[in-house]
Amino acid sequence: MRKNIVAGNWKMNKTLQEGVALAKELDAALKGRTINCDVIIGTPFIHLASIAAAIDITRIAVAAENCADKESGAYTGEVSAAMVASTGARYVIIGHSERRAYYHETSAILMEKVKLALTNDLTPIFCVGEVLEEREAGKHFEVVARQIEEALFALDQADFAKLILAYEPVWAIGTGKTATSDQAQEMHAHIRKSIAAKYGKEVADGCSILYGGSCNAANAKELFSRPDVDGGLIGGASLSVDKFLPIIEAF
Ligand code: G3H
């Protein structure tokens, strides 16, 4: 059966020292506790190696928030999937709406990133989601299906089965305006149906689909109770243990 997952995405927050301290605090808080989901923290590149060395990475796995769409070479400032993997990180967030919007990452670029992540044994957490205008125009299902199809449907079945997906309606990210659990459930079910049509029911049923967008201690339980919502990708509320831990414990 598919995994329940709570993943943090720190975005561009925390100095190295603050990040290591937060990861250690979370690790200590989880130690000895019964946790019913996998826990992942997505951190800036420069934190990855230090955090992976400072915590028990069997208890909290570490994710990069991005990786390059090129294997290696003269790409000043870029960080490759192989470099990410060499830090001890096991996951990489790919296709976050902030990367799509501010850094112009297209489906073609995202496809390269996914392939390189998989080649380097990293599990992509692939993000999709519509902007408000698309939802208001009733195009949200179409937009999300297209994002998945364009970037992922060239993968073979075995590779697709390794992915984690995250549905993050852009209008809900950092706005305090969470999707209702009905809105999340219907989109997650729609995503699963499109995966089933392409790769079959077994792959679709095995794929963890996380919800992201103003998910917090107050709404996590309701969201995670829905049959196709397999956890959360948490931004703001992952930046302190007192806010993140109750979300983990919502499972
Ligand atoms: O990756 C995380 C999402 O962008 C959600 O961010 O929880 O701050 O709304 P948020």
Automatic annotation (TrEMBL):
Which pathway, metabolic or otherwise, does it act in? Carbohydrate biosynthesis; gluconeogenesis; Carbohydrate degradation; glycolysis; D-glyceraldehyde 3-phosphate from glycerone phosphate: step 1/1
Binding-site residues, substrate: 9-11, 174, 214, 235-236
Q: Please list the reactions this protein catalyses.
A: D-glyceraldehyde 3-phosphate = dihydroxyacetone phosphate
- The catalytic activity of this protein is classed by the Enzyme Commission as 5.3.1.1
Described by its record, this protein's role is as follows: Involved in the gluconeogenesis. Catalyzes stereospecifically the conversion of dihydroxyacetone phosphate (DHAP) to D-glyceraldehyde-3-phosphate (G3P).
Tell me where on the tree of life, at the top rank, the source sits.
Bacteria
A GO BP term, please?
gluconeogenesis
- List localization entries: Cytoplasm
Q: Which gene encodes it?
A: tpiA
The answer to whether the entry has keyword Isomerase is yes
> Keywords for this entry?
Cytoplasm, Gluconeogenesis, Glycolysis, Isomerase
Q: Which residues form the active site?
A: 96, 168
PANTHER family the record matches = TRIOSEPHOSPHATE ISOMERASE
**Any one Gene Ontology cellular component term annotated for this protein:** cytosol
The kind of enzyme this is, by top-level EC class, is isomerase
Q: Which organism is it from?
A: Porphyromonas gulae
The protein depicted here goes by the name Triosephosphate isomerase
Provide the family line: Belongs to the triosephosphate isomerase family.
InterPro entries the UniProt entry points to: Aldolase_TIM (IPR013785), TIM_sf (IPR035990), TrioseP_Isoase_bac/euk (IPR022896), Triosephosphate_isomerase (IPR000652), Triosephosphate_isomerase_AS (IPR020861)
Organism taxonomic ancestry: Bacteria, Pseudomonadati, Bacteroidota, Bacteroidia, Bacteroidales
Q: Does the keyword Coiled coil apply?
A: no
Task: Describe, as the record does, how this protein assembles with itself and its partners.
Answer: Homodimer.
Alphabetically, the GO molecular function entries are:
triose-phosphate isomerase activity
Pfam families named in the record: TIM
